[in-house]
Amino acid sequence: MKQLISAIFFSMTLLLSGCATTPGDEQVEYLTYVKAGQMVPVTQFTDTQGNKIDLEESSNAKLLVLFATWCPDSQRAMKALEASDLNLDPNVDIIAIGREDNKQALDKFASEYEINFPLIADAKRAIYAKFANAGIPRLILLDANNTIVKTIIAEGEDPLAEVQW
Fold it and tell me: For residues 28 and 20, is the Cβ–Cβ distance under 8 A?
């Protein structure tokens, strides 16, 4: 019985710890490597459809979404984003970067969640590592000049609550 209680406690701890790390990793402190006022550290991407994206070619505000397909908080944030007015705003470019996800996982996710904005595969965390060490989903708001306006860890029931330029 004691082992069962320990197993349940351990499982609940993992569930409540959010999506800080990949399943199986130990919990780590969230560190954010970028802050408001800095230029975004990455401006060029290739999405899962092979399209080249250069942030410097757009005069729109941008929303970078750092997420993982397996993370419940990320799933909630992506559903909220897909249903939001931001998704329809012609003055905001949305680009989602799948941390530790490959093209196949992202294509499946896009189909299931009806995502209509570009998804970028970041299977080895090369992009994510320029922004943070742990914690998803992360929303990075950029102005038209690609300056970081705000960074948000969007865990919880209302993941878009703090999104404002």
Answer: yes
Q: Where are the alpha helices (DSSP H) in the chain?
A: 2-16, 72-83, 103-113
Determine, yes or no, domain membership for 158: no
Dist. CA 61–CA 82, nearest whole Å: 17
Give the whole-angstrom CA distance, residue 133 versus residue 154. 15
In one-letter notation, the amino acid at residue 95 is: I
Helix (H) or strand (E) holding 60: none
Q: Is 74 a domain residue?
A: yes
d(CA 26, CA 152): 22
Euclidean distance between CA atoms 89 and 87, whole angstroms: 6
Q: How many domains does the chain have?
A: 1
Tell me if 105 is assigned to some domain.
yes
Dump pLDDT digits (tens) for 122-141. Answer: 999 999 999 999 999 999 99
Tell me, what CATH number does 20's domain have? 3.40.30.10
Residue written as token pair 């948000």: 152
Q: What is the pTM of this model?
A: 0.84
